[in-house]
């Protein structure tokens, strides 16, 4: 049995109650967005390699780490990260060169390069709930709930799918240059996440594309993003001006480690973020993966709950939904034992 199952049941029950108050009651389990079973060739959990094969746990000089090489460009960065010569097998380089280095140094180097790497258990949290900040005075506009979903992959689109099932009008906006890769990698799953949304593809490198983006965001009651702060700032999306112009906005910002400070520069995906939050099983031989990209579905739920609580508060709320922090809160909630 998935050890996260009881927590997921509780979060889904909370989502059902909130959606019923705000619109249509949503049974999240019925949406088919909580797992990717049958969508990918997934191995059984419990090893040093994630079920999808992209992320691995390995020893650094002072503890265990996770590295996720789901993107081709990340594989090409490994030699620069480790300061070694090119090799056809990046994992061989990790085995040879990472063991003598401190995890803090490896994390710092990965942050500079945009590599998703983490020290296992480096993040702690008491709850999987995403913290919220009041940045606007509130006061949502009348009419149907308008959601702009700028996120990709799993957690953010899942948040948008829950709001769409509740009755919101959700517009999924993506770059014509970098569309959401799930449409190709897991098309049926991508349809469950995004099939009930309207779609808009824009060229963010063009002035008219950025102008159109500003227009749709200005009309949003809820904005869902999944990029780092500096990438969004380059598109003209920053909290102060957005909340000044739209004081009733609820902005759900899904990041790897949080919005502020150095954490905002770090990249993360579901498996390495789960490891960072200690959402792993510890054995006598070290940590092992508990499941497939577990930080994603629990963060998708936490993000949706944060959005709905923000709406109940009248808007003007920023929801800081960080994958690693939500994973850490989930690990605490289900009583996972940390390494000795």
UniProtKB/TrEMBL annotation:
Pfam family, one: CoA_transf_3
Sorted UniProt keywords: Transferase
Key word Transferase present: yes
Keyword Transferase: yes
Molecular function terms, GO-annotated: transferase activity
Domain of life from the UniProt record: Bacteria
Membrane-spanning residues: none
The protein, known as: CoA transferase
Lineage start: Bacteria, Pseudomonadati, Pseudomonadota, Alphaproteobacteria, Caulobacterales
């Amino acid at each position: 049995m998935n050890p996260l199952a009881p927590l997921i049941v509780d979060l889904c029950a909370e989502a059902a109650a909130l959606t019923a108050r705000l619109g249509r009651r949503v049974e999240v389990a019925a949406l088919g967005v909580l797992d990717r079973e049958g969508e990918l060739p997934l191995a059984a959990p419990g090893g040093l390699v994630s079920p999808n094969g992209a992320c691995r746990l390995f020893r650094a000089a002072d503890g265990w780490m996770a590295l996720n090489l789901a993107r081709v460009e990340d594989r090409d960065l490994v030699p620069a990260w480790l300061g070694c010569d090119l090799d056809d097998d990046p994992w061989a380089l990790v085995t040879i060169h990472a063991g003598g280095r401190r995890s803090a140094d490896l994390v710092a180097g990965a942050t500079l390069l945009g590599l998703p790497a983490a020290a296992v258990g480096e993040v702690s949290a008491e709850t999987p709930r995403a913290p919220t900040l009041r940045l606007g005075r509130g006061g949502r506009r009348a009419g149907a709930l308008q959601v702009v979903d700028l996120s990709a992959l799993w957690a953010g689109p899942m948040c948008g799918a829950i709001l769409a099932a509740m009755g919101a009008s959700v517009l999924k906006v993506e770059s014509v240059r970098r569309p959401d890769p799930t449409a190709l990698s897991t098309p049926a799953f991508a349809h469950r996440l995004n099939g009930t949304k309207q779609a808009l593809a824009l060229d963010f490198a063009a002035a008219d594309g950025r102008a159109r983006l500003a227009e749709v965001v200005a009309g949003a009651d809820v904005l869902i993003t999944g990029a780092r702060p500096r990438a969004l700032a380059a598109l003209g999306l920053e909290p102060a001006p957005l909340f000044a112009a739209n004081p009733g906005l609820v902005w759900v910002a899904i990041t790897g480690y949080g919005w502020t400070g150095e954490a905002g520069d770090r990249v993360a995906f579901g498996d390495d973020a789960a490891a960072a939050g200690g959402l792993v099983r510890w054995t006598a031989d070290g940590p092992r993966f508990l499941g497939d990209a577990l930080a994603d579905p629990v963060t998708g739920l936490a993000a949706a709950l944060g959005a709905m609580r923000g709406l109940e508060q009248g808007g003007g709320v920023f929801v800081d939904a960080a994958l690693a922090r939500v994973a850490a809160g989930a690990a605490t909630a289900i009583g996972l034992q940390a390494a000795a």
